Amino acid sequence: MINLLAKLSVFILLVLLSSSQAVFGIRFVIDREECFSHNVEYDGDTVHVSFVVIKSDAAWHYSEDGVDLVVKGPSGNQIHDYRDKTSEKFEFVAHQKGIHHFCFTNKSPYHETIDFDVHVGHFTYYDQHAKDEHLNPLLEQIAKLEEALYNIQFEQHWLEAQTDRQAIVNEGMSRRAIHKALYESAALIGASAVQVYLLRRLFERKLGMSRV
Length: 212
Description:
Elements: H1 2-20, E1 23-30, E2 33-40, E3 46-56, E4 67-72, E5 78-85, E6 87-93, E7 98-105, E8 112-121, H2 124-128, H3 136-211
Antiparallel strand pairs: 1-8, 2-7, 3-6, 3-8, 4-5, 4-7
C-alpha cells in the first residue's frame, strides 16, 4: 500500500511538472508579421491552438477582416492555413516531434492585439513508467482527468479572450454612437441657428419694405 501511494505521488508530481511546460500563452501586438515556435517532444502528441484578435489600435476602425495564421511542422510542411480570421480554435496530431512554427500575418494598416494560446497534451509517466497492472487503470483515469482539466482551462482562456474582444467592440460601438449623436445634435443646433438668422433677416426686410 505504501509503495502504491509512493508511485502515485511521483506520478502526480511528474504530471504537474511536465504539463506546466506544455502550455504556452501570450497576448501581443502585431504590425505586419509575427512568428512563434513551440517544441513538441513526442510523436503523436495532440496540439491545441487558439487565437483571438482582441482589438485594433485605430479608435475609429472596426473590421472583420482578421489575420492569417500558417502552422508548419519541423520539416517545414504546412499543417494548417487560416485566412482572415478574427478568432479560431483547433487541434492537430503532431506526426513528427520537434519545433512547430506559428506565423501570423496582419494585412490591416492598423496594429492588432492578438491573444494566442498553445497546449500540448502528453502523459510522459504513463507511457514510460506505468508497468504495474494494478496501477494501470488508476493511472489511466488520472491521466484522462488531467487532460480534461487542461482542456477546460484552454477553453476558458479562449472564452475569456472572446469576452475581452466583445467588450472592446461594444465599448467602441458605444463611443462611436455617442460621438455620432453629439455631431448630429451640433448639426441640428447649427441648422436651427441658421434658420433663426434667415427668418430674422426676412422679417427685418419685410418690416423695412412695409415702412417704405
